[in-house]
Design goal:
Blueprint lengths: L1 H6 L2 H22 L5 H20 L4 H28 L3 H4 L5 H18 L1 H8 L8 H29 L19 H17 L12 H13 L2 H12 L3 H9 L8 H4 L4 H7 L8 H6 L1
């Protein structure tokens, strides 16, 4: 098992990730400086991608392309989140954990695991000796990544501009992509993660197909743990008593961008099964259960 893990860079990337997160955790714990937390998690992807590409040294086209895509996504997200927190002055998620060193440690552990497991498709491709010609899966995966990256970047910028505008104080973001999805940035995030998996498919064999756990874990995290549940609860608390917000929520998809006229007329069971509109996201629907 040790040989298998080493040949796929699983232990190497795990050790480096632990060290990388530990470095930022120590800074956060000792100096009580938490503005680097999101940067530490998001930039970890770039570290894993470059490390595995260089250590293997094969420089196959597929390896170079996927590493480049991973690094571009990682650095854009890392510096966007760093800029945002420097502008806003506080990360409310982390602020709730700073009173407990143990909880802060758990936060960094989960963050490191997130970076390690979502990077698995690229890690395994970079560790592989197989180099088949470019196939349909490669092209499809790259397209998925590009669309996801574009959606995430545009959504992030639209929301940042909306929040920074004084006239929007006390309002929820419903411009641009946010007209069609309550969380378009997370949709982009998930789509590009699946793009990495699809583009890695031509070289996968046997147990290597388990890299599918990467995008699955990301979906689990965003849909059930630290993404939509927290933001939906926060929005309900702020705007839940406003009729206009209730209409927005009823007619706007939680994740997959759709025209409000279409989404608003779909039955609840269809939304829940196919469009991730879970009862836990709605205070009213939770009360009915």
């Amino acid at each position: 098992m040790g040989t298998l893990m080493d040949s796929h860079f699983l232990s190497l990337t795990a050790i480096v990730t632990v060290g990388y997160q530990l470095f930022f955790f120590i800074i956060a714990a000792v100096f009580e400086y938490h503005k680097i937390t999101d940067f530490a998690g998001s930039s970890n992807f770039a570290v894993i991608g470059v490390l595995t590409l260089v250590v293997k040294g094969s420089w196959h086209l597929r390896q170079v392309v996927l590493t480049f895509l991973l690094v571009i996504w990682s650095l854009r997200l890392a510096f966007y989140l760093l800029m945002r927190i420097l502008q806003w002055g506080e990360d409310r998620r982390v602020a709730k954990t700073i009173r407990s060193l143990g909880k802060l440690a758990v936060f960094y552990i989960v963050q490191g695991f997130w970076a390690w497991i979502v990077s698995l498709p690229v890690t395994v491709v970079n560790a592989s000796d197989r180099d088949p010609p470019v196939q349909a899966e490669d092209i499809l995966g790259w397209i998925m990544w590009f669309v996801g990256f574009l959606v995430e970047a545009i959504a992030d910028q639209q929301k940042l501009s909306f929040i920074n505008s004084p006239e929007n104080k006390g309002k929820w973001c419903n411009i641009g992509l946010w007209k069609y999805s309550r969380h378009p940035n997370y949709f982009g995030d998930i789509l590009l993660a699946w793009g990495f998996y699809v583009a890695s498919a031509p070289v996968l064999e046997g147990a290597e197909w388990l890299v599918i756990l990467g995008p699955i874990f990301l979906m689990f995290l965003l849909l059930f743990v630290s993404g939509l549940p927290l933001l939906e609860a926060s929005a309900e608390k702020k705007y839940g008593n406003m009729a206009a917000y209730r209409i927005y929520k009823k007619t706007t998809s939680p994740l997959i961008p759709l025209p409000p006229a279409v989404y608003g007329n779909l039955p609840l069971w269809f939304k829940a099964i196919f469009l991730f509109e879970f009862p836990s996201y709605s205070r009213a629907r939770r009360a009915q259960l």
